[in-house]
TrEMBL record, chain A:
Source superkingdom: Bacteria
Keyword Cytoplasm: no
Cofactors demanded by this protein: Mo-molybdopterin
GO function terms (MF aspect): heme binding; molybdenum ion binding; molybdopterin cofactor binding; sulfite oxidase activity
Organism per entry: Pseudogulbenkiania subflava DSM 22618
Keywords: Metal-binding, Molybdenum, Oxidoreductase
Keyword match Methyltransferase: no
GO biological process: sulfur compound metabolic process
Protein name per its UniProtKB record: Mo-co oxidoreductase dimerisation domain-containing protein
From TrEMBL, chain B:
Top-level division of the source organism's lineage: Bacteria
InterPro entries: Cyt_c-like_dom_sf
Record GO terms (molecular function): electron transfer activity; heme binding
Span of the signal peptide: 1-18
Name by which UniProt lists this protein: Sulfite dehydrogenase (Cytochrome) subunit SorB
Organism: Pseudogulbenkiania subflava DSM 22618
This protein's UniProt keywords: Signal
Length: 409, 94
C-alpha cells in the first residue's frame, strides 16, 4: 500500500538544487526565497514552504497531509504548466498509488450494459486532445478579505495542460444510458482516512457528461498523468472548476435522482445569482445556493513581480495570461497608472477556447518611481473581472483584477 | 474502503507525524489534545494556515464540522480544550 511517498525534498536557504525527478530547480527558486502576497493570512505565509513532492519540482506547500501544493507564479510565464510544476490538491489523505495494469473503470447504474474497462480497453475509444485550464474553485481563497477558512491558496491553484484521452460521451454511449438518467456520480481511488468521513464523490449533470469536450484523460502534456494529478486517468471538464475533474477515476454511476453526497449537497456551493455563469447544475440547485460550475473570467500578470525594481530607460514588458469558462478571451486591457487609463494588450497564440491565452503589452516608463500595473480580461460573451470581491462563504471565484506595483529606478 | 485498510491508515497517520515534523504548533495548554485529535486525519499546518482570523466561534464551527460532518472521533470533553487552545494560540487577536 503506497500512500504519500514521504521522501520530500525541502529547499532550504542555499538549498539542494536537484529534485526527486532529477529536474533542475529554476534559477528563481534557488535560495528558496518564497515571496507571497501580503494579503494572505499571516499564518498561511508563515507555514508555506517551497517543497517537492516525489516527481515534482518544489511547489508552495500549503498542507502536507492531505497534500496541497501550489504552483509558484513564475511557471505561468509559459502558457502550458509543466507536469512537474502542476498544482496538487486533495481533500482526503488516503491516496493509493494506482497501478496502470490493475486499474479498472466501472460504468454502471442506469445503463443498458454495465462496463468494466481496463486502461488498454479505454484507449481503444477514439482519442482526442485539448488544451484546458484546471483551476481549483478556491484558487486565491487566501486573498479574500475578510479571510475565510480552507486551504489558503494564493494565485497558483491552477494550471493549463494539453489533456489527451477519450470522450466520456463515447464511453457512456457504449454502456447505453437509460431514459430518465439525470446525473453521473464520479468516484476516484483516493478516499478518507476514517470510514466515517464522506468519500470525495462528485456528480455531474448528464448533459455535461455528454459534452464533446468532457474527457477521461490519461495523458497530460504528452506524458502519462503524474501520480499527484490523477494517474492513470482523470475526468476533464473544460470550463468548469477542478472540483469535477475527479482524479484516479474508478467509477461512473449513472443515476436518475440528484446525488446527495456531502461534496455535492454541502460543499462547493455558491449563492444563487451572485456570479455570472451560463451553465448551471439545476438538479442540484436550491433556493439559496447552487453548485459551483463554470470558472469566471480571470487574468494574471506574470512578467513582473510585486516590488520588483526595473531600470528607467528600458521598455517594460508587461505580460500574462487570461482564461475563462471556454467562451474565449476577447480582450485584455492593461493599466500602467493604477487604473486611471487603460490600453488593449496584444493577445498571443490561441491554443483553444479552454486554454490560458497569453497577452503582452510593452511600454516605456517615463519617470522614476512606483508604477501600479493592472490587467483585466473580458471574454466573448462580455463577462469581465471585478474590482470588488464578491463575498461567498467558501471563498470561491476570486477574479479581482490583478495588480502589481513595481519601482522604476 | 475496507476496515483493515482504515485501521492501517490510522496507524500510518500516527507514524506520518514524523514526516510532518516541520510543523511546530505554538506551545500552550492543551496543545497535546489538539495534536492527538486533529492529526488523525490531517497535518497540523491546516491550523497554522488558517490563522489568525477565526474567533472562538469561527474555530468552533470548524471543529463542529470535523466532528459532525467529517466523523472525527473527538471526545466531547476534548472539544472545549481544543477550542481554548485554538482560540488562544491561533485565534483572531482580541
Amino acid at each position: 500500500m503506497g500512500i504519500n511517498r514521504r521522501d520530500f525534498l525541502r529547499v532550504g536557504s542555499g538549498g539542494l538544487l536537484l529534485a526527486g525527478g532529477g529536474l533542475l530547480v529554476p534559477a528563481w527558486a534557488k535560495g528558496a526565497q518564497l515571496l507571497q502576497p501580503a494579503a494572505l493570512p499571516d499564518g498561511a505565509r508563515e507555514s508555506a514552504l517551497l517543497e517537492a513532492l516525489p516527481g515534482k519540482v518544489p511547489l508552495i506547500k500549503r498542507s502536507y497531509r492531505p497534500p496541497n501544493y501550489e504552483t509558484p507564479p513564475e511557471y505561468f510565464r509559459e502558457v502550458f504548466t509543466p507536469n512537474k510544476a502542476f498544482f496538487v490538491r486533495y481533500h482526503l489523505a488516503n491516496i493509493p498509488e494506482v497501478e496502470a495494469r490493475s486499474w479498472q473503470l466501472r460504468i454502471g447504474g442506469e445503463v443498458e450494459s454495465p462496463l468494466v474497462l481496463t486502461l488498454d480497453e479505454l484507449r481503444r475509444f477514439e482519442t482526442v486532445e485539448l488544451a484546458a485550464v484546471c483551476q481549483c474553485s478556491g484558487n486565491r481563497r487566501g486573498l479574500f478579505q475578510p479571510h475565510v477558512p480552507g486551504v489558503e491558496w494564493s494565485y497558483g491553484a491552477m494550471g493549463n495542460a494539453r489533456w489527451r484521452g477519450v470522450r466520456l460521451r463515447d464511453v457512456l454511449n457504449k454502456a447505453g444510458v437509460k431514459k430518465g438518467a439525470l446525473e453521473l456520480v464520479l468516484d476516484g481511488a483516493d478516499g478518507p482516512v476514517l470510514e466515517k468521513t464522506p468519500d470525495f464523490v462528485k456528480s455531474l449533470p448528464l448533459w455535461k457528461g455528454l459534452d464533446e469536450n468532457t474527457l477521461i484523460a490519461f495523458e497530460m502534456n504528452g506524458e502519462p498523468l503524474p501520480h499527484w494529478n490523477g494517474f492513470p486517468a482523470r475526468l476533464i471538464v473544460p470550463g468548469w472548476t477542478a472540483t469535477y475533474w475527479v482524479k484516479h477515476l474508478s467509477s461512473i454511476n449513472v443515476v436518475s435522482a440528484p446525488f446527495d453526497g456531502f461534496w455535492m449537497k454541502s460543499a462547493y456551493r455558491v449563492p444563487v445569482g451572485k456570479f455570472p455563469v451560463v451553465e448551471r447544475f439545476l438538479s442540484q440547485e436550491t433556493a439559496a445556493n447552487t453548485p459551483i460550475t463554470e470558472m469566471v473570467v480571470n487574468s494574471l500578470i506574470t512578467s513582473v513581480r510585486e516590488g520588483e525594481r526595473l531600470p528607467l530607460g528600458k521598455p517594460l514588458e508587461l505580460a500574462g495570461i487570461a482564461w475563462d469558462a471556454g467562451y474565449g478571451i476577447r480582450q485584455v486591457e492593461v493599466s500602467t497608472d493604477g487604473g486611471q487609463s487603460w490600453r488593449n494588450a496584444e493577445l498571443g497564440t490561441d491554443h483553444g477556447r479552454f486554454s490560458f491565452r497569453p497577452w503582452h503589452y510593452r511600454f516605456q516608463p517615463r519617470h522614476k518611481g512606483r508604477y501600479t500595473l493592472l490587467a483585466k480580461a473580458t471574454n466573448r460573451i462580455g463577462q469581465t473581472q471585478t474590482f470588488e470581491l464578491i463575498a461567498n462563504p467558501a471563498g470561491y471565484h476570486h477574479n479581482l483584477v490583478h495588480q502589481v506595483a513595481v519601482d522604476i529606478v | 474502503m475496507n476496515k483493515t485498510l482504515c485501521a492501517l491508515l490510522v496507524c500510518w497517520s500516527a507514524l506520518a507525524l514524523a514526516d510532518e515534523s516541520a510543523v511546530k504548533l505554538r506551545p500552550g495548554n492543551n496543545q497535546d489534545v489538539v495534536a492527538r485529535n486533529c492529526a488523525v486525519c490531517h497535518s497540523l499546518d491546516y491550523i497554522q494556515m488558517n490563522s489568525r482570523f477565526l474567533d472562538r466561534k469561527g474555530w468552533e464551527a470548524t471543529v463542529t464540522k470535523m466532528v459532525k460532518v467529517m466523523g472525527a472521533p473527538i471526545k466531547e470533553e476534548d472539544v472545549p480544550l481544543i477550542l481554548d487552545y485554538l482560540d488562544q494560540q491561533y485565534g483572531k487577536p482580541k
